[in-house]
Specification:
Blueprint lengths: L10 H14 L2 H7 L36 E12 L2 E8 L10 E7 L6 E7 L6 E10 L10 E9 L5 E8 L7 E2 L14 E8 L4 E7 L6 E6 L6 E6 L10 E12 L2 E11 L8 E9 L4 E3 L15 E5 L8 E5 L14 E2 L6 E8 L2 E8 L11 E2 L9 E9 L3 E7 L5 E7 L4 E6 L14 E7 L6 E9 L2 E6 L4 E6 L8 E5 L3 E8 L5
Parallel strand pairs: 1-19
Antiparallel strand pairs: 1-2, 2-3, 3-4, 5-6, 6-7, 7-8, 9-10, 10-11, 11-12, 13-14, 14-15, 15-16, 17-18, 18-20, 20-21, 22-32, 23-28, 23-32, 24-25, 24-31, 25-26, 26-27, 28-29, 29-30
Bound molecules: beta-D-fructofuranose (FRU).
Length: 513
Amino acid sequence: MHKLFNKRFSIPMAAALVAAAIVGCTPEKYKQDYNPLIDDPTEKTPEQPETGSSMNELYRPQVHFTPSKNWMNDPNGMVFVDGVYHLFFQYNPQGNSWGNMSWGHATSSDMIHWTEQPVALTKDELGAIFSGSCVIDKDNTAGFGKNAMVALYTSAGDDGKQQQSIAYSTDGGKTFARFGGNPVIKNDDDNLRDPKVFWHAESGKWIMSLAKGWKKGIEFYGSQDLKTWSHLSTFFTPLAGRPDLQWECPDLVQMDYKGGKKWVLIVSVNPGGPILGSGTLYFPGEFDGITFTADERDYPLWLDYGMDNYAGVTWSNTGSRLVMLGWMNNWSYAGNVPCDPWRSAMTLPRELKLVEFDGKPLLTGTVVKEIDGIAKEWKPAGSSWEAFDAYQLRLTVGLDQNTTITLSNEKGEKLVVEVYGTSRLVAVKRNASTGKVNFNGTFSVPSMQGPICVNGDKVTLDLFVDQSSVELFTQEGTLSMTNLVFPSSIYNQIQTSGASVEAQVRELSRIWK
Ligand code: FRU
């Protein structure tokens, strides 16, 4: 049984999904999907079928990336080159549930407007194509050509083996050739995946982080040429009260901090989010080219306190600017979210920074400034506004008492946000009043809470509201809470009680042509 059907889902869901999996994963079906080794980089991978989607169906995000049709999960292979942001992603070219894992592909010049491209990588004889990363090989260390785009991914075999493989593109990501010597890291079990690679100038080598799934922890490997890898070290730190979860999708990044530099290891864990289901955490620490050592802190530290930001990693080749994109969903209910003919969106892209709060590093994330390109002018929100396709709401809330903020639509569907001024917490309540929730029993969450990490007597909240999501940030991204919601129409009214609240709104124009 595939690991995704192991423990990730509830028992009744698992039964339904196993049935679907058995139907969807027969060897015969794989034979049809089988895409022979592509040796010739000029050979095209299969074209994305024309869907004719209006990109305007009920719940279709208007300012977030979604594939026009079919299932998507993790962002993969994110790399910036020649003015183009590439986003590859876990994709099922055959249907709207997890399976036939391939790398879909989309491109953008601003990380906001996206053009879907043909599927980049599909299953081969080593297995399905699981998550991974891309690098630009400026110095031709691998011998595939100067500036080749090299994709590193997990080959997930039918035999359960998760091994690491590479493919390369010399035409800017349009087509990929697989390396004849795959796998580049052999492995016998199903707990080693999601290679994220960067060039470590100080030690003159490529560093790969790999997640150990149910075995927990991260393995680090080093290489001079992206083809031959040697094991460097293993990282593991227990997470208080959360012994039983799998580690996935690591990303080791170096960040500016207090006039110097500091390393941060980002890891997604499941089922172990801030409340339940999937979540992303981080470890500030040091990396010496071999070993990552986390600071002495109480872990876990959450990157996002909502339910729907998972498997996020950063773009490669963006210099010192670090931008992350996450999968805006949660394995607890991802298979059931009521979206058709697509399933899942990415979060808005967020610029990460490391700041000091309470004498310790705090990882922050704010929506990239490129969002201004689709934003209209700010206006006082009043008690209601036009039912825009999407919008940003900015609230300045006093912290001298507790405040209740209710966003609602004309049908009375509503999302309640509480700002607990004295205890300095924000809570989001997602329940039967927010819209559709009955597609999965774990979707309703009475209260998700996160800390307000600001000093002073006011907090600014920025809410990015789309057709089926609300991403909430406190000022400078000191807290983020990302949540799916399924109201029958976008919330366009606000009511508050408690402390004084100033509210401004600006329309965000839809990104689809
Ligand atoms: C995370 C994950 C990865 C894996 C991929 C499979 O969501 O489980 O660990 O590579 O999804 O689709």
